[in-house]
Amino acid sequence: MASGAIFSILVFLTGMTAFIAGAVWLKKRRTAQRSAELQRLANDLGLSFIEKDTYGLIAQLHTLGLFRHSATRRWARNGKVNNVMRGHIGDAEVYMFDYSYIVSTGNSAHEVRQTVFFANDKNWYLPNFRLRPETWWHKVLAKLGLKNDINFPESPDFSSKFWLTSEFEGLVRKQFSPDLQHLLTERPPVHLEGSNYYLIAYKPGKSLNADEAQVFFEHCSQLVRMLQKQGAPELLDLAELNKEPLPDPITLPLTEKRQ
Question: Does any domain span residue 17?
Fold first, then answer.
């Protein structure tokens, strides 16, 4: 092989090595900057903060739709939680954290990241439900009679904005009071999932910066307080749910700050 060709190969390999090293360095720097930014936010909100998840949150939440992505689907893997903030609102343990997983499509893959709010209140008896912004596709499915969600004739604004589904329609109608519908309608659309005493909220594929995360946390905290104020509707009989109970959460440290 001519010396010129060898030199070109060496230059190419050196350039590729430098590029990869630079990309790795940049990713680590951005990761460190985000952790520092969210730690400052946690301090402002009176929450504890850890970079790595020591609570086993994915294991706790694996029955909810969002977390089944990385647990049961071949095209999504390597679910990971980090930058965990934790505190209390009344009797509820509340968390906000970064959740990511890898999506594989053929020969390519990309990472999906999102900010998640999680509340765990043993006084709740939430029926399994999912709420998300209603899209034009949802409206088409409803028109064709292929799929339907739970609507409230007395709240057309809420019903047109959200696609609410559950196996337990009667229980959901009891849980979603007019006040709760009003609160959700007045806030930016998010995805909600509830099951028994677990509630999560998130914006799919959206990793919030510190300012956005603060507003998101405050809105979710309002939702938690309203659910606590409402209490458990009379018809929310756990025997009627006929669902396998969620696993007890991992024992948490007692020395952390409470909000």
Answer: no
Is 224 domain-assigned? yes
CA 115 to chain centre: 6
Please give the single-letter amino acid code of residue 191: H
How many beta carbons lie within 10 A of that of residue 119, not counting itself? 24
Q: Whole domain around residue 153: which residue ranges?
A: 32-241
Q: Which of 27, 28, 25 is nearest to 17 (CA)?
A: 25
* C-alpha Rg value of the chain to the nearest Å: 22
Q: How far is CA 121 from the centre of its chain?
A: 17
Is 16 inside any structural domain? Answer: no
Q: What is the pLDDT of residues 148-188, one digit of tens each?
A: 899 999 999 999 999 999 999 999 999 999 999 999 998 87
**Distances from the Cα of 214 to the Cα of 7, 96, 208, 223, angstroms:** 54, 10, 9, 14
Q: Rounded to 5 degrees, what are φ and ψ at 245?
A: -65, 150
Q: What's the whole-model pTM score?
A: 0.76
Contact in structure between 53 and 5 (CB atoms under 8 Å):
no
Cα–Cα dist 213/118, whole Å: 13
In the chain, the number of structural domains is 1
249 located within any domain: no
